[in-house]
Amino acid sequence: MKRFAILSTALCVMLSGCTTEQPLNDDTTPNIESGTPSESAADKPQAQAFVFKSGVLEIGDFDPYTIGDDIFDPCTEITQEEFTAAGFEEVEPVLEKYAGISGGLKSCFLTSQDGENSATISNNVANRPVIEDAYGTEERISTILPELYVYSPRFGTSTSCFAQVDTLRGGVAVIASGLEMTSSNESNCAKAQKVLENLFAAHSSGR
């Protein structure tokens, strides 16, 4: 299907952001004295998190070089009922023939109940600093999910846009894919952002 062909290309380009070599340890980094008092639990802001039946997915930084296999899989760790609560009536796995070029990323296509916010959700082993170096990122105003950011790997006539939030178990990305003759990059960024916000609004804590 055409949408999967466009999506698979987008996923393949997204993976190029993960090819940065692991940085060497910097011996000049100052050591933190063990006697420094730690911040009390009462002073710490409550961490934002997605809350699914499979567990709590805390928003925060992760190291793409050491995360290993403990990467959140949105297609298996979010139930159909949870997607439905966020406004998506159907979850369709990416076709096997296209999944092969996605480098192990887990992706599935979400059909929205209103038909206007259908998109693809995927995990990502690249965090914001890696993506920033590869493509640059764009700040988006989001009162629901302030940690959200978007980026647009450009290739050919694609207007695809990715909205992502980093978690302790890797990135969770929503891809709104399209071509110049059918959609603009700005409209796809707005769509990807809305899908991720809807998912967080339906299943979150710490707000």
TrEMBL record:
Region spans: Disordered: 23-45
Pfam family, one: DUF3558
Organism superkingdom: Bacteria
Biased composition, class Polar residues, residue ranges: 23-39
InterPro entries found in the cross-reference section: DUF3558
Protein name stated in the entry: DUF3558 domain-containing protein
Organism of origin: Corynebacterium coyleae
